[in-house]
Amino acid sequence: MNTSTRRITEGAMMVAIVGLFLFINQQLAGMLELMMYWILSFPILIYTVKYGWKAALVPGAAMMFLSVMISMPTTIFYLASALLCGVVYGQGVRSQWLNTILLALTFVFTLGSYIVTTILFASAFGYDVNEDLMIAQQLGEYLQLGNINVVQLAFGVTVIFTVLTAVLQTICVHLLAVVLLRRMKLQAPTLKSVFDCAMPKALGWISIFIWLLFLLRNVLKLEGNILGLVIALYVIDLLLLAAECIMDALCFAIMIRRPFMGVILTLLCLMMLTFTWTRWLIAFFGVASIMSELRRKWKRGAINGTLGKS
Fold first, then answer.
1. What distances in angstroms separate CA 276 from CA 210, 238, 271, 281, 282, one per listed residue?
2. Per-residue pLDDT tens for 247-300?
């Protein structure tokens, strides 16, 4: 099969994959696009890595035309954002951009789609931000939270979790793209070892400061927006420390050559976030790992035979 015929055939196959996703999504009343629309990035991403962004414009246009024919307006937007992300990421891989640039661009496109769907055109996508804020205000009055501006706190938490969701989705797109491209024996980004994914030491001191503020919030008489900011920082820091503990758990599973142990320890870390006293364990182990550079010592120990040898 010559190159032109292969390119046309593979482009048609990618369009068919997206069409199948759109059809199943329509039968499920849009459930797929709400939970995992970012999956739509991968057909065009793979095609772009193989043939370039100019060649990807044709199957991309066919995908959009197919979406206009069988999908709702919200699905058209989700598909457009996914295709844009896939083409840019694929061209970045083809041009050998740094992983930092790939992640940053994917995050920008992902966060942009969330901002459009949850803030700018919320009503068109089935959300009502004002109603959610009103419910939060009524909940705050019922719980008698005092001088805390519950509406501002709820809006802040919404923004924080939107950003965190965009970060997690960016990581998922990046990792799954690497797996698919390597399985298909195409050019793929080079990933760092989990042992090299270290958070800066400064985060350990910042975490201690945030947790002290959260503990002494009543003593310091923090109120209003300041208290809401402290609570928001506490939630963000808790998630970061949990991520640090999960990476340590994965490294430990690699060292003992028990991959299933990594899954068990990861689930245990996530469960510990639901109880107050176990959150302190997450905070303690997370800060200790950051301050001691535990994973780097484990890596040196695996290479040199001792944890203390540099």
1. 16, 11, 11, 9, 10
2. 888 888 888 888 888 888 888 888 888 787 888 888 899 999 999 888 877 776
